[in-house]
Amino acid sequence: MRNIKFSIKEYYHIYNRGVDKRDIFMDSEDVARFLVCMNIFNTTDSVGSVYEHSRKELKFRSRAPKNKKLVHFIAFCLNQNHYHFILEPLVDNGIQKFMHKLSTGYTNYFNEKYKRSGALFQGKYKAIHIDSNEYLLHLSAYVNLNYKVHKNLNKKWMESLPISSFMEYVEKSAKLFCAKEIILEQFDSLREYKSFCELVLPDILRRKEEEKELKYMLFE
To answer: Of 55, 135, 205, 212, which sits 20 to 30 A from 117 (CA to CA)?
Structure first.
């Protein structure tokens, strides 16, 4: 993948999978830990290891860092062997710093838990600049519903977890994590956005199969 120059107030598709296509989540505790890492490591300050936080604090929607964030999450989805993010950097090198903290912190946790060593992810994360509003809207649908695309990968223990930001977009009562305004302000209602996602996802997948235009978005 070519080098990409990240710019503040722009949007980027960030994704990666496990080395040798291995699972990066073995149980619900792993998913919960990764979600905590997404929150705790999103700060301009050094926060140390997640292990410094008590188990009582290891909740995805626990208090966010009070200091300045590195990125805004626009959308995310976690699957057994890979993840997708849509990120907006808030400071210079925000994505690079955040992704380094996230991958290092989670890999350390995973390796200690499962008595392994070495890389967990398949090289450096992949990044694509989202260069149009249409692309952003369609990608938000793809990421939010990505767990449906890869439903055959999901274990039973993943079914009840918040592995996607989709519910944040379509339920008023859902707790907040993502900065959704850039997407939702373009729709009259949450229901309209939900319908949009369900309408465009089959077309995205059909185009992928027919033209291979979106092959960088999917992991085989």
So the answer is: 55
Domain-embedded: residue 1? no
CATH of the domain at 178: 3.30.70.1290
- Distance, C-alpha 78 to centroid of its chain: 6
Tell me if 5 is assigned to some domain. Answer: no
Q: Helices 28-40 and 94-113 sit at what angle, rounded to 10 degrees?
A: 150
Which segments within the chain are labelled E, that is strand? 11-17, 71-78, 82-89, 126-130
Give this prediction's pTM. 0.85
Split at pLDDT 50, 70, 90, the class of 153 is: low
Contacts 24+ apart (CB under 8 A), 49-57: 49/105, 49/108, 50/105, 50/109, 51/109
**pLDDT(219) > 60:** no
Assign 205 a pLDDT band (cuts: 50, 70, 90).
Answer: confident
